[in-house]
Amino acid sequence: MNERSISSLTQIWHVAVHEILTLLRSRRVLAVLILYLIFAVLGSLGYVAALEQIEQQMREVLLAGGTPPDQVSTTTSILGSDAYKKILAFFVGAKPDQLASVFLESPFVPVILGASLMLLPYLVLLLGYDLVITEVESRSICYVALRISRSTLILGKYLAHALIFCGLTAVCSIMLLLLAMRLSGVTDQITTATGLLRVWVSLIPYGLCYLGMIVLSSTLVEKRRSALTFAVVVLFVFQLMAWAHHLPNEGVWQWLQYLRWLSPSTYTDGLWLAGVVEPLIHVGALTAFALLFTVAAIFRLNRRDL
Amino acid sequence: MSNAVEIKSLRKTYGKVVALDNLSLDIPQKAVFGLLGPNGAGKSTTFGLMAGWLKPTKGEVQVLGLPSHQLAKLRGAVSALPQDSDFPPALAVESQLRFFSRLMGMSPKESRLEASRVLEQVGLANSGKAKSAHLSHGMLKRIGIAQALLGNPQLVLLDEPTAGLDPASARQVKDIIVQLGQNATVVVSSHNLVDIQEVCTHGAILDHGKLTASGTIDELTDTGAQIQILVESQNELPLRVLGETFGDAHVDTKHQAGHGAIITITFDRHQKSSDITAQALRILLEHKVAIIEVHRGKSLETAYMELTT
After folding, report:
1. CATH number at residue B231
2. Do B72 and A25 touch (CB under 8 A)?
3. Could you say which of B195, B220, B245 is where a domain stops?
4. Contact call for residues A305 and B53 (beta carbons, < 8 A)
5. Are residues B235 and B138 in the same domain?
6. pLDDT digits (tens, 9 = 90+) for A169-217
7. ipTM value
8. Are A305 and B48 an interchain contact pair (Cβ–Cβ within 8 Å)?
9. Which of B203, B220, B237 is at the close of a domain?
10. Is B79 on the interface with A (CB under 8 A)?
11. One domain for residues B168 and B101
12. Which of A112, A157, B20, B244 has a CA between 20 and 30 Å from the CA of residue A302?
């Protein structure tokens, strides 16, 4: 690595540190952490409670039907049963035997991944929808743009948000693990921990992809006040594109179905799958989207007036 | 490289609005260069193009030998005070200045010392810990100037540096500009023509996106080719004698509303202005005309009004 690239990396790091300090002072990080935890905890508790309720009702039915009590608990254990696999596979949109085992062994892990896949794009958006346009609108970017390239600025801000994202999801995963350990029904804590680790690792490319999208959208808008709306619309359009495979399989609709491959949301299914190759292909696709969005953001910022 | 900035056939449009049209301008090294013009003349656009914040529609800008969009490569050799720019409100100004210094390659210790130095230079040594949200407009302007002083800039672009400052602070800023001009090229835009005439060595006047005049301040004000004499009397005789001596076409008299008149004598640049001045004053004194003031050249304000209206 030559001196200039080291210097650029150092500048990216300085921008990232500065951005993190600014974000921490804005308390947005705390708000996002609390929101994420509330949704994840409520979702997990609700999901576990629902499973317990179903088991309880089954137990009562079996006992009323004359099943010996010692056989009832074995019969009613939903977790690990075929029915549970089928329910989970239905939500994921995969075949039951394709699911990774970590999602079948702990009720917490799938609900955390599911909730994260649903919520995180919006939390990433909340954290950074205006990360470039604020500086352009206030013209504080002018001070920085004379000292570092615009690409360095984007990469530094991206790194800051990526680190915050990784940190937030890690903190949440640990807190959820602690919660899981205190709750009855989660007997195998190592399984839960392994599952949460996999969820966390899977969420990194997913979060980075949406982060790239948000960075890009914040370079495209002209005014800060329209940044949030624009980012939500962009996110919604991409999620809508992922639904294109539900379109009728005829005429022009058939061709529109291909739009789903242009949406990152399409590639989240792979995060649930067993094995290495399938999940890696989907992770690769999400990483490629992250790269594409970030390069587009750099291109856009380099071409626009400040 | 004899010029710090070389602008060639520059055009900038915003939609259908032409902000700059075919502007060509050279700014010599170590000059304190004033950029003048009425609102909408294209001064801030020119600044933005020189600093690389704006992309030219046509033409090119070379700054310290580099195209303006590559100025980041110089890592702070070019600094600027943009117009109407803010600092992040939640950060202390000192940490903001340290951040800029770090981007320029300074160590943590150097950046701390440098931030203190520039804050002291703009008279805000005690405001380093303050958040920019808590500072007045004038203080923020001085913080903006402070960041432009970080490191050892070779070119400093200051857009309206004295706007909104109290007289003492404005004086301080003008002193800083003069001091900077000893080692660096400084480009200043201002509506305050007295300030420009006081601190600048060179200047250019823009109007409706076009260059109407450029050169040294002496050239712009015809300092080597004109004298102005403010007299008390409105007596026609000495004026007639002056006309006979220097030629009617070279003597212009404007009578003041109250009493007295301003006599303007123009001459070729190869003639010595001291000789012309001495001769004119002798004639006036012989006719017992009370002389109030004598100026070499016209004021920059007069030149500006002639060129922009």
Report:
1. 3.30.70.1150
2. no
3. B220
4. yes
5. no
6. 888 888 877 777 776 555 567 777 888 888 888 899 999 999 999 999 9
7. 0.81
8. yes
9. B220
10. yes
11. yes
12. B20
Name the residue among B39, B35, B29 with its Cα closest to residue B49. Answer: B35
Q: Is residue A261 within 8 Å of residue A173, measured between CB atoms?
A: no
Bridge partner list, B203: B34, B215
Name the residue among A40, A196, A222 with its Cα closest to residue A130.
Answer: A222
Tens digits of per-residue pLDDT, B248-287? 778 888 887 767 888 888 888 777 878 888 888 898 888 8
Q: Which helix (H) or strand (E) holds B228?
A: strand B226-231
CATH of the domain at B37: 3.40.50.300
Q: Say if B4 is an interface residue toward chain A (CB within 8 Å).
A: no
Which residues fall within 8 angstroms of residue B16, CB to CB, at 6 or more apart?
none
What's the CA gap between B40 and A131, in Å, rounded? 30
The structure tokens listed for A54 are 């179903």
Count the Cβ atoms, other than its own, within 10 Å of residue A264. 26
- Range list of H helices, B200-299: 217-220, 236-246, 273-286
Are B75 and B207 within one domain?
yes
Shortest CA gap A306–chain B (Å): 5
* Residue B136 exposed, middle or buried by CB count within 10 Å (0-12, 13-18, 19+): exposed
Q: What is the pLDDT of residues B75-90, one digit of tens each?
A: 789 999 998 888 888 8
Q: Is B259 exposed, middle or buried (0-12, 13-18, 19+ CB in 10 A)?
A: exposed
**B210 and B226 both lie in a single domain:** no
What is the nearest CA distance from A148 to chain B, expressed in angstroms? 5
Taking the C-alpha atoms of residue A136 and residue A145, their distance in angstroms, rounded to an integer, is 10
Same domain membership, residue B216 and residue B269: no
* Coil, strand or helix at B230: strand
Assess whether B208 and B227 both reside in one domain: no
Which residue in the block uniquely carries the two structure tokens 């590639």?
A: A267
pTM score above 0.90 = no
Residues B95 and B202 placed together within one structural domain of the fold = yes
The answer to whether B124 and B134 are in contact (CB under 8 A) is no
Q: What is the SS3 assignment for A37-106?
A: HHHHHHHHHHHHHHHHHHHHHHHHHHHHCCCCHHHHHHHHCCCCCHHHHHHHHHHHCCCHHHECCHHHHC
Phi/psi at B239 (5° precision):
-65, -40
**Domain of B256?**
222-308
Distance from CA of A15 to the nearest CA of B (A): 8
Q: For residue B156, which of B129, B188, B120, B122 has the smallest C-alpha distance? A: B188
Q: How many domains does chain B have?
A: 2
Residue type, B190: S
Q: Is B71 helix (H, G, I), strand (E, B) or coil?
A: helix
Q: Residue A20's closest chain B neighbor by CA?
A: B91
Q: Are residues B267 and B194 in the same domain?
A: no
Q: Which amino acid is at B117?
A: R
Q: Which two tokens stand for residue A96?
A: 């039951």
